């Protein structure tokens, strides 16, 4: 806007109108319109202001909305801050956060982000965070003072060939409780053992059968330092809680000090019948037994644990059923 006819900027715009209009259109888009004392830059419905706003800005806004949603859940007690001031999220938790944000603010999002498939949207948001150093091993929302772990530890590729003959492993299979508290299980052994329990073999099928192929099991690993969730699809362990929670998963002293406890959890939204849930967990446990027999590890399947405390620590809802815990060591 200008008030007098001698305004320098107004005179420049009027005298160089065609050149300025062409330059603005080429670099920013839109049309330059000049009236008596006003100049407007108008955009068409599908235009955006340059190549940065709002098209690319939508991504940064989505990231801020995700961080705000994390803060909201923290204040409501739905997320728990650990002693290291971090909030640990599983991949599913992160996916749910992104989905919640899109549902809540979808009308304000660009068409690209409204219609983007969920996996790509999650990868895009996480990729932006990594690119801008908002995440390495953690995603940090510095402005709200919290961190969220969404990166998982990639395990070594499981060795699916070789090993002891099956009949020999079956003859050696047994429950053993005399586990050395100072013993350890290697990453390769963890990868092989978890694959044996719940790995993917062919056509999306598992190393065990489940009723009607519901694949309702979830596998969690409890160690002296954390609880993590196993993903066979990605061959990863994603931390969901940091600290030593072995007293929650064990009512016996030998299990409290053992290096590894495997927790078998059933998703009741996939399989509601407890008989089928237990069948799946039993089959997975037997595979762990057989693997341990041929690997020289000791193991025992247990029922006793503090399920209420575990559900709270692991942030499990009413649709998750803790079935058994299997202790492993040397």
What does this structure look like?
The chain is α+β, with helices and mostly antiparallel strands and 330 residues long. The strands form 3 sheets. A 7-stranded antiparallel β-sheet has the order 6-9-8-7-10-12-11, sandwiched between helices. A 3-stranded mixed β-sheet has the order 3-5-4. A two-stranded antiparallel ribbon has the order 1-2. The longest helix has 22 residues, at 274-295. 31% of the residues are buried. It is elongated. Residues 50-55 and 136-147 have low confidence and may be disordered. The chain is 39% helix and 19% strand. A hairpin with a 4-residue loop joins strand 4 and strand 5 (146-149). The N and C termini lie far apart (80 Å).
Secondary structure layout plus pairing:
Elements: H1 8-15, H2 17-27, E1 31-34, E2 39-42, H3 57-75, E3 86-88, H4 91-105, H5 111-115, H6 118-131, E4 139-141, E5 146-149, E6 153-154, H7 166-172, H8 187-198, E7 217-222, E8 226-231, E9 236-242, H9 246-249, H10 253-256, E10 260-267, H11 274-295, E11 298-302, H12 307-314, E12 320-329
Parallel strand pairs: 3-5
Antiparallel strand pairs: 1-2, 4-5, 6-9, 7-8, 7-10, 8-9, 10-12, 11-12
Helix pairs in contact: 3-4, 3-6, 4-6, 7-11, 8-11
